[in-house]
């Protein structure tokens, strides 16, 4: 390994040379008490910036063991450091000069959720920060003096400000770690408490806007307060006892008028599968890890899926036990989304009437009288929701503001009135009793049929590139020549998750042997990630733009490949 002086000298003599001369500095350099590794040098100043790592022994950085001694605290510490590193970049890298991406310093930017990422890791007894640096140039000539300043002044300042315990606000760091640990503690105990979710009192559920996930800070924001009948208390390892509303297993309805907070509550539950940063407002809105948001998704492809529990008796004797389509309707896509979630082992379904197919959810009495059952292929979800729970143990939370057909089927009915929850269970059951409907047929719940991908169908190669995987925010993934639409996979929260899923699908090829099911393949991939880290998904240098994901989103993305071919396990 070379030392800093050699890097400084090399950058000084490169000034004015053609840009490719930068490739000579690839490698590792020893600074005073940490290392800088230049793993990849960009081809020109307009290309993706160069990949850099800083490695500092955690003992040298001075972090006490209680900040990282278990997996949960490890993830929380790395999350805090990545955010601090990003803040330090904005603080010290203020004079960007040159062409293209010259002078840029970037680390994977995180949102409101705390995720395990590859941008900041603890590995081999070291804290390792992975980030991008735009090597400076004027035109395509090396700006050596600017590069020298970046590596001798700017980057060391960022490192000093963000990766040493003595430089950090210790109180804030510990509160961040403890908040994440407490939230995870709640999630691990939900099932023992017979709950699927918990919403702490004084939580701030509304977000700034539909495109800004930060908490709403306007005057008049109403903090969440549980209704007394649904109140639950949990004693946390760090914060002590907190109270809030517990949502029990079974069927739960969220009702109320428009703009009273129904969807806001469900949205909080939807993202309660993740831990959140301090002061997010949803720190202690916690949902079980196997909860999946379901919606209609017109136009999606479906491959060899048994949709018969929900849709059967199609015209012209179309087979619904091995159903495929390139352009599903709203009801068919919703059926597929439920069945695929159950195929993966989901224990809780979250549904919001705003994004559902009405004809899939209910058939009222007048429509039943007009259209005979034998002429209606769809068995509505209302006829499945009880058997799903009673026979399969699968809970459901439904936002339903336009129909009372589910009243008699629900264990709990939460009425949102001016953003405050009220227990309307007794009233709704009384209304159902006084206004009886024809008994719904209690349909047989869907079975857990497993589907097996056909090997060697999905390739990430494109042209001369053996692996070409790109993402467009959280809307599309380009996987070689395949374009996959994932905008309806709503529980993805960070673009790096989708990028990582793309590489995970490529990695999963080793397990697509014509015998393993989609569920088994996903579990094998995630087991490797737990054992080896996210780095196992990349065949090249260590990446700083990966983020953890669940098996549900991995399977959901895989299922949306139009080229996917599967067979059902007999």
Radius of gyration: 26 Å
| Structure summary, number of beta strands | 30
What is the molecular shape?
Answer: globular
Q: State the major sheet.
A: 7 strands, mixed
% residues in beta strands: 15-25%
State the share of residues found in helices, binned by percent.
25-40%
Structural class: alpha+beta
How many helical stretches?
14
Look at the structure and give the mean pLDDT.
Answer: 95
Uncertain stretches of 5 or more adjacent residues: none
Structural notes for this entry:
With 570 residues, the chain is α+β, with helices and mostly antiparallel strands. Among the domains are: 2-168, no CATH class; 451-568, no CATH class. 29% of the residues lie in helices and 22% in strands. The chain is built from 14 helices and 30 strands. The strands form nine sheets. Strands 1, 2, 3, 4, 5, 7 and 8 form a seven-stranded mixed sheet that branches. It has a six-stranded mixed sheet with strand order 19-22-23-16-24-25, sandwiched between helices. Strand 28 (476-479) and strand 29 form a beta hairpin. The longest helix has 22 residues, at 71-92. The protein is globular and about 85 Å long. The model has no long low-confidence stretch (mean pLDDT 95).
């Amino acid at each position: 390994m070379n030392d800093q002086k050699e890097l400084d000298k090399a950058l000084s003599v490169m000034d004015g040379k053609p840009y490719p001369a930068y490739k000579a500095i690839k490698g590792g350099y020893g600074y005073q008490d940490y290392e800088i590794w230049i793993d990849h040098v960009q081809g020109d100043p307009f290309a993706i910036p160069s990949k850099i790592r800083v490695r500092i022994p955690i003992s040298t950085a001075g972090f006490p063991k209680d900040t990282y001694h278990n997996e949960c605290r490890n993830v929380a510490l790395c999350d805090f450091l990545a955010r601090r590193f990003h803040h330090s970049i904005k603080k010290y890298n203020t004079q960007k000069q040159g062409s293209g991406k010259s002078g840029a310093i970037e680390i994977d930017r995180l949102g409101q959720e705390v995720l395990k990422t590859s941008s900041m890791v603890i590995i081999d007894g070291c804290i390792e920060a992975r980030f991008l640096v735009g090597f400076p140039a004027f035109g395509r000539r090396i700006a050596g003096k600017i590069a020298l300043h970046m590596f001798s002044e700017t980057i060391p300042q960022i490192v000093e400000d963000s990766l040493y315990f003595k430089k950090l606000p210790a109180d804030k760091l510990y509160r961040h770690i403890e908040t994440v640990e407490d939230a995870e503690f709640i999630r691990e105990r939900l099932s023992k408490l017979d709950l699927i979710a918990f919403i702490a009192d004084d939580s701030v559920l509304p977000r700034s806007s539909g495109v800004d996930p930060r908490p709403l800070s306007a005057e008049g924001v109403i903090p969440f307060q549980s209704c007394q009948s649904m109140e639950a208390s949990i004693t946390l390892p760090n914060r002590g006892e907190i109270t809030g509303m517990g949502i029990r297993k079974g069927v739960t309805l969220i009702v109320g008028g428009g703009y009273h907070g129904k969807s806001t509550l469900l949205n909080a539950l939807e993202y309660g599968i993740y831990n959140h940063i301090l002061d997010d407002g949803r720190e202690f809105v916690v949902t079980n890890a196997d909860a999946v948001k379901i919606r209609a998704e017109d136009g999606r492809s479906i491959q060899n899926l048994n949709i018969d529990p929900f849709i059967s008796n199609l015209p012209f004797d179309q087979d619904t036990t091995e159903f495929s389509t390139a352009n599903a309707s709203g009801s068919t896509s919703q059926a597929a989304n439920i069945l695929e979630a159950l195929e993966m082992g989901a224990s809780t379904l979250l549904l919001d009437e705003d994004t559902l197919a009405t004809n899939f959810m209910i058939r009222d009495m007048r429509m039943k009288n007009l259209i005979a059952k034998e002429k209606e292929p769809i068995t509505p979800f209302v006829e499945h929701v009880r058997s799903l729970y009673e026979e399969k143990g699968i809970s459901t939370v439904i936002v339903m503001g336009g129909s009372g057909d589910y009243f008699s089927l629900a264990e709990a009915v939460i009425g949102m009135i001016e953003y405050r929850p009220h227990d309307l269970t007794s009233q709704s059951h009384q209304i159902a009793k006084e206004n009886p409907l024809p008994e719904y047929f209690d349909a047989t719940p869907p079975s857990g049929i497993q589907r097996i991908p056909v090997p060697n169908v999905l390739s990430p190669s494109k042209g001369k590139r053996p692996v070409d995987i790109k993402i467009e925010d959280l809307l599309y993934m380009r996987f070689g020549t395949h374009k996959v639409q994932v905008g309806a996979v709503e529980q993805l929260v960070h673009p790096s998750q989708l990028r990582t899923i793309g590489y995970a699908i490529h990695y999963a090829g080793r397990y697509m042997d014509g015998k393993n099911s989609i569920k088994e393949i996903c579990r094998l991939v995630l087991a490797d990630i737990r054992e080896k880290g996210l780095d196992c998904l990349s065949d090249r240098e260590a990446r700083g733009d990966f983020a953890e994901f669940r098996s549900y989103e991995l399977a959901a993305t895989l299922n949306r490949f139009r080229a996917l071919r599967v067979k059902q396990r007999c």
